[in-house]
Amino acid sequence: MFKKVLIANRGEIALRIHRACQEMGIRTVAVHSTADTAAMHVRLADESVCIGPPSARDSYLNVPAILSAAAITGAEAIHPGYGFLSENANFAEMVEAHGLAFIGPTAAHIRMMGDKIAAKDAMRRLGVPLVPGSLGELATLEEARAVAEEVMYPVLIKAAAGGGGRGMKVAHDASEIEEAWRVARTESKAAFGNDAVYLEKYLDKPRHIELQVMADSYGNVVHFGERDCSLQRRHQKLVEEAGSPVLTTADRDALGAQVTRALKDLGYRNAGTLEFLWQDGQFCFIEMNTRLQVEHPVTEMVCGVDLVKQQLRVAAGEPLGYTQEDVRFHGHAIECRITAEDPDTFAPSPGRVTMYHAPGGLGVRVDSALYSGYSVPPNYDSLVAKLVVHAATRPEAIARMRRSLNEMVVEGIKTTLPLHRAIMEAPEFVAGDYTIHWLEKFVAGLRAD
């Protein structure tokens, strides 16, 4: 096992990785920008190295500075967390070229799954069902028109290198396809330096279901069940559940068997999440994230497994040490992503936290790097806390989340706590009767009131 790990990230995920390392007797190195000098992950790590000014480009995306920090501190491995460099295949290659372990998948698999067209092609060859659409990149507008007519409108034009909703546009009929094509390519080029796009059938009432997997270097692959991530605003997840209110145990087992078989054939290694759209009982693969997910805590709560520790063991060359039959699912878990944003306008709200109180009690977990007196910088993602609850049943988990949201105090900045309180009271959410389109309408209704 590693003796020292550098954490190439910040905020709650850096703290999350630090905690797993500490429990395993692994020393940690925190890297940070000048804006994060007083951050909690910096204060708690065994060592810290400043790698640049506040701009992420000059600090958390500064590969030479991160590799230099690993060299001068004697780190043996680098954990990228999520975001920043976590799905950068070139970074993974450079880490290993410098004699360090990259705590994640191989660069080849990161590169494959980072290209949505290549990922879909790989999954199609492995027998995983896809959303109807183009088999590859659309070279011309005429190709887009032809495929759209074949799968029937509405359709979605998507960036091959996309993520987070960027480079993604809907065409409801033939009169909108040219504009969707043009805007998607322009956004994709600006955001990812790549204007390649493809087309999928736009589903009108899908759920967003994802499956958490873990694989070692010896061909062993297991899944840890599904997460329902359908509560999204502008393709950004706000609330996640494990398991999904609409899936049966048979659904989970069938999807899990299909996915683990495919990843075994692919020779995949470490943690990964396969994302699907589910509608009318059918699963359609949309993408794979080759990293730890923001919402991984709900899986940990229902399975009783520490996914970060599993990542560390696999990266160190250890076998999983268990089979699918050893994985058990208990109860229900819900996660609310608390962001430093105005709950009405979603405008960023950085600033000094004058008071912070985390909720507690049985089955309550808060992943956060906040503390009273901490100043949330304006330079990075607005996520400041993940509130997670676990209970024996979904109704009990909802009741526990309501109580926990009411206990939580964050003063000095605006947060989305009021929105989450409203979601937990919504009849559609309580009934589990929602799709990926529901939250946008719900938020619009709150504004109208």
Strand order of the largest sheet: 13-12-9-10-11-14-19-17
Summed up, the helix count is 15
Number of strands: 20
Structural class: alpha+beta
Number of domains: 3
The outline comes out as globular
CATH topology of the largest domain: D-amino Acid Aminotransferase, Chain A, domain 1
Unreliable segments of 5+ consecutive residues: none
Report how far apart the termini are. Answer: 56 Å
- Strand content is 25-35%
CATH architecture of the largest domain: 2-Layer Sandwich
Average the pLDDT over all residues and give the rounded result: 96
Summarize the biggest pleated sheet.
Answer: 8 strands, antiparallel
Radius of gyration: 21 Å
Helix % is 25-40%
CATH class of the largest domain: Alpha Beta
CATH superfamily of the largest domain: ATP-grasp fold, B domain
Question: What does this entry look like structurally?
Answer:
With 449 residues, this protein is α+β, with helices and mostly antiparallel strands. It has 3 domains: 4-103, Rossmann fold (3-Layer(aba) Sandwich); 132-201, 2-Layer Sandwich (Dna Ligase, domain 1); 207-448, ATP-grasp fold, B domain (D-amino Acid Aminotransferase, Chain A, domain 1, 2-Layer Sandwich), CATH 3.30.470. The chain is 35% helix and 27% strand. The chain has 15 helices and 20 strands. It has an 8-stranded antiparallel β-sheet, sandwiched between helices. Strands 3-2-1-4-5 form a 5-stranded parallel β-sheet.
Keyphrases for this structure?
449 residues; alpha+beta; Rossmann fold; Dna Ligase, domain 1; 3 domains; eight-stranded antiparallel beta sheet
